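job 3f2a | input accepted
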Amino acid sequence: NVRLKNTPFLQAIEDLKLKYGTDYKLVSRADEDAVNSFFRPNSFHTAVFQNIQWLDQVALEGQLLSSSYIPLENEPGYTEMLHELSELFHRHNEKGLVNMEFQTKLFYGILDKPQPPIPA
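job 3f2a | predicted structure (120 res):
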């Protein structure tokens, strides 16, 4: 699931994660080079699906806090981060909900032999 950054709200969430995330920049993401290496010597296909989540303020906070790179309650930046998240929600919500847009990418193909999993 790749979170999009194509609206002011989604870009603001990205900026918040960059500002407060303890190691957000280091989070590994499967890219086409890694997927290509996994399936080599065979080819693979990609299917892309729209994935939209409508979240109220509690769900938005829960989603943010579920990420491993977000500071914990007793760590620096936690209170300020939640305050900024609340401001973002109030500025961008429509009828009490915000729209989190993702693209779900599915890579599929045939392997000639078992391969080790792609590192997360």
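job 3f2a | Residues 78-92 form the longest helix (15 residues).
job 3f2a | closed
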